Amino acid sequence: MKDALGSVNSVLVLGGGSEIALATMRALVARRARTVVLAARHPEELEPAARELRAAGATTVETVRFDAEDDAEAHGRLVDDVFDRHRDIDLVLAAAGVLGDQSRDERDGAAARAVISTNFLGLVSALVPCVERMRAQGHGTLCVLSTVAGERPRRSNFVYGSSKAGLDAFAQGLGDSLAGTGVNVVVVRPGFVHTRMTEGLDAAPLATTPEKVAEATLEGIARGAHTVWAPPALRYVMSVLRHVPRPIFRRLPL
Ligand SMILES: NC(=O)c1ccc[n+]([C@@H]2O[C@H](COP(=O)([O-])OP(=O)(O)OC[C@H]3O[C@@H](n4cnc5c(N)ncnc54)[C@H](OP(=O)(O)O)[C@@H]3O)[C@@H](O)[C@H]2O)c1
How far, in whole angstroms, is CA 124 from its chain's centroid? Predict the structure, then answer.
């Protein structure tokens, strides 16, 4: 339950090993969050991160198994287990995601399907039961890590971009459908962030860090934003790029 100042006290992270998610958890624990559940494919690998969050002041840090590729029943069981044991979860952060390999994915249906299944279908099937539990508790925030890559798909990463466009559209519509229920949805659209996911790639303009995305995310959650751009200037860049006529768009080095 949020405290008297409205601070987030308890969090479930879907994709708990994400560098952006862990930077967000460090910043949240520094702001008095006390319960953190890190859900990941290999929870045992998150013990060092859990120890760090406990040392920083979190009283309960758990690591539990979550695979976005599991079926909806498994996701429902996981969500019920976490909400039953902690009674109240203030924030669910959906961070799991894979970048894929565009040159392979656009030629290999199974590989393309895996990217879309993880980034879109897997998170939708885990978020739906979270929504039900948050509706029942009467409050909560669902924060979804989307990306600018979903705003206007580019030929260099349209498989990933389309998976995130689906997730982004789901989250935006969900947020509208939940207006007035006490449950909010915040969609975060970072640009290029220096993490494991982008290691070895040339940084894009306006590249940023997990810590800066974390700060922008928490600031957005605190003010009840529905969309957060990280960095904020990307909002204006994308509003121009979205409207570039296709013949010109195709000639851009994107
Ligand atoms: N980095 C960027 O430039 C950038 C920009 C915009 C948006 N984003 C989005 O931000 C989110 C976090 O990315 P990040 O930069 O922090 O990268 P990251 O450190 O690589 O985090 C991605 C996380 O997703 C998890 N994951 C992958 N497949 C999964 C599955 N089937 N089930 C459960 N978890 C799975 C990974 O777990 P394992 O440890 O098991 O591999 C990893 O912890 C992603 O959704 C990404 O699309 C990233």
Answer: 11
Cα dihedral value 174, 176, 178, 179, nearest 10: 160
Domains along the chain with CATH numbers: 10-249 (3.40.50.720)
- Verify whether ligand 1 is closer than 6 Å to residue 17 (CB atom): yes
* Nearest CA owner, ligand 1 atom 2: 193
Closest residue by CA, ligand 1 atom 25? 96
**pLDDT tens for each residue of the chain, 254 residues long:** 665 456 899 999 999 999 999 999 999 999 999 999 999 999 999 999 999 999 999 999 999 999 999 999 999 999 999 999 998 999 999 999 999 999 999 999 999 999 999 999 999 999 999 999 999 999 999 999 999 999 999 999 999 999 999 999 999 999 999 999 999 999 999 999 999 999 999 999 999 999 999 999 999 999 999 999 999 999 999 999 999 999 999 999 88
Q: How far apart, in whole angstroms, are the C-alpha atoms of residue 171 and residue 53?
A: 28
